[in-house]
Amino acid sequence: MVRHPVPMLATPGPAPADDDTRYAYECKYDGIRCLAWISDGVCHMISRNGNSLNAAFPEISHALLSLAAGRELTLDGELVAPDRGGVPRFSRIGRRLGVTRPSPALIRAVPACLYVFDLLGFGGRDLRTLTYLERRERLERLGLPHGPVLLSPSYRDIPVSRMLAVAAEHDIEGVIGKRVDSYPDQAAYLFEGRAERHYAECRTLAEGATGHGIPGNRPGHVNVMKTIHRFIAERLRVDIVS
């Protein structure tokens, strides 16, 4: 069982070329890093700084327990909350931080969602000895989405420049690039994707697993995010075909 996994952190580094097929790409969102492990019917969620997130996000904890269904799981992801346009904003998720007993009204007003991007442990087995693709295959069989717990989409056939353009167009914070043959303690890449940036700023990510999440305890918010991801996917693939 993987307990207290170490999160991947960002440091400066080079960006791969568009024709570099060694990478899978995911969107990066403005949220809170969340590492979670479920064992013996108990869910633990911590931030990148090791602070407990259980009290502030009880609906996520309950959903993770339901997802585990008695199994041991260790997950890495991002807690997020979107604005009315469906874009995750740190200012919104920040309203939930430090609130140890969020009221039903606050949970409705600022619904949170956990985007899971890595499976580090399953059924008592440490999966950090597996490559990104091997872990991703297992993650995709986990049964997500499950309420406010969602699967972070991953793209392998899209040039990073196009990913950045679409991220900028939709005001998504950036793009994560991960070596498909890498292990959690090896490098991935983070590229800034805000619309006001003319050039991508690249940082390598070391130690742990990467990713970022999104929102939605209310069905409407989950649907908004699914719609945005579907639209982004369509835009990406249409551009490739054309």
- Strand runs, count: 11
Query: Architecture, CATH level 2?
Result: 2-Layer Sandwich
Tell me the name of the CATH class: Alpha Beta
Largest sheet descriptor: 6 strands, mixed
- In the predicted model, the low-confidence regions spanning at least 5 consecutive residues are 192-227, 237-242
CATH fold title? D-amino Acid Aminotransferase, Chain A, domain 1
**Elements, N to C (H/E):** EEEEHEHHEEHEHEEEH
Mean pLDDT: 76
N-to-C terminal Cα separation, in Å? 46 Å
User: What fraction of the residues are assigned to beta strands by DSSP?
Assistant: 25-35%
User: How many domains?
Assistant: 1
How many helices in DSSP terms?
Answer: 6
- Secondary structural class: alpha+beta
What oligomeric state is this? single chain
Radius of gyration: 17 Å
User: Helix share of residues?
Assistant: 25-40%
Cα shape:
globular
CATH homologous superfamily title: DNA ligase/mRNA capping enzyme
